[in-house]
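Saturday, quiet lab. Running sequence design on the structure tokens for the scaffold JK sent over.
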């Protein structure tokens, strides 16, 4: 009986390895450009995919699905007519900032427990216990001079984010508050640790090695702060990543492959896995009212399809392992490991119509219905 059980276990393990090997074998990586193929060649029903895309188009602002791409197994299976349009992506920038942290941790220059004050001394008086983990999970309680609400902009609007305010929002790690000036100060701290602008670090270690077209992306900055250019950590006030959908999808494909690009390790698997799963407990109290409630779903500046404080998935109908980099104006990049898929939807139209989590959940459910090769039954990163 024991031999039989062991044999069955071995078969299960072997089948799992064969599935992983098969998935790796079919995964492609773009050269100078993406290879464009039919959805059917990648196990997707084109008619059903068109239904999903039409649904999203009809539930978007005027930009619809013009700046929209679907990548599966490293192949482009759907594209809109304006995927080379370059513009800012607001808070989607935060996932680039998080990646800079991951690189510095890989290099042994920082840990999640590194204290911000050790690199930006002005943090010592009021924020001595704030760590990099607090910053990247929006639990730092950091409040800058000038963070008083301005109209509807209530989550850290300071034009002087590097000047710490005299009173924190809350004790670090005790609450969650989506806060833009905290992310900009976070970017400043990372810049000190790196000894160079985050844009340069990202270009050298990531963008250049995955062949992102340098003419199609750049990273806004605050100019020199204490001798080094500080790129925007948050994406507000125009200090954001400017990019097009075609090039952003490369970044998504790297993350889909857990930091591997054509067999080369660019950032650690452990960082990608941790950054893209929920790190903020659903039970954590809010530190400030915000529509960007990350409790139960916020990772290290990535949004996961976790279970929110209300007990519901962020994107109902989507795979549990899905995650996104997201910003204002309906700028979103979804990575769905279960489907070996990256979906980018960019735009400048949230003032006309906001694409809600419910809409995205329904859209992703329809995409799943278009997958006919059965691989989603076996794939799960989380």
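Result came back. Writing it out in full:
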């Amino acid at each position: 009986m024991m031999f039989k059980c062991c044999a069955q276990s071995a078969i299960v393990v072997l089948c799992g390895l064969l599935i992983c090997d098969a998935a790796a074998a079919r995964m492609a990586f773009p050269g100078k450009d993406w290879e464009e193929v039919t959805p059917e060649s990648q196990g997707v029903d084109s008619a059903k995919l068109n239904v999903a895309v039409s649904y999203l188009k009809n539930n978007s602002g005027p930009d619809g699905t013009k700046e929209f791409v679907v990548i599966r197994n490293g192949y482009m299976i759907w594209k809109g007519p304006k995927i080379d349009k370059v513009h800012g992506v607001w808070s989607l920038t935060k996932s680039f900032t998080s990646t800079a942290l991951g690189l510095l941790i890989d290099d042994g220059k920082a840990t999640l427990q590194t204290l911000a004050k050790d690199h930006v001394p002005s943090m010592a008086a009021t924020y001595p216990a704030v760590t990099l983990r607090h910053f990247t999970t929006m639990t730092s309680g950091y409040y800058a001079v000038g963070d008083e609400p301005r109209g509807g902009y209530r989550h850290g609007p300071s034009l002087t984010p590097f000047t710490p305010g005299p009173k924190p929002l809350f004790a670090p790690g005790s609450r969650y508050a989506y806060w833009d000036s905290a992310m900009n100060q976070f970017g400043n701290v990372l810049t000190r640790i790196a000894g160079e602008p985050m844009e340069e670090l990202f270009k050298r270690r990531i963008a250049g090695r995955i062949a992102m077209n340098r003419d199609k992306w750049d990273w806004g900055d605050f100019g020199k702060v204490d001798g080094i250019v500080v790129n925007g950590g948050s994406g507000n006030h125009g200090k954001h990543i400017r990019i097009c959908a075609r090039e952003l999808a490369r970044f998504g494909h790297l993350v889909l492959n857990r930091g591997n690009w054509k067999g080369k390790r660019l950032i650690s698997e452990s960082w990608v896995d941790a950054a893209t799963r929920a790190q903020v407990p659903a039970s954590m109290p809010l530190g400030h009212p915000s529509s960007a409630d990350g409790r139960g779903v916020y990772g290290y500046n990535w949004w996961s399809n976790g279970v929110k404080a209300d007990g519901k998935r962020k994107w109902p109908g989507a795979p549990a392992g899905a995650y996104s980099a997201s910003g204002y104006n309906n700028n979103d990049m979804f990575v769905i490991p279960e489907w070996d898929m990256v979906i980018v939807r960019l735009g400048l139209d949230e003032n006309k119509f906001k694409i809600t989590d419910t809409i995205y959940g329904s859209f992703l459910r329809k995409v799943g219905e278009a997958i006919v090769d059965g691989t989603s039954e076996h794939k799960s990163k989380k």
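Notes for JK: The chain has one domain: 40-377. Residues 68 and 102 are 27 Å apart (CA to CA). Ask whether to fix the surface positions before the next round.
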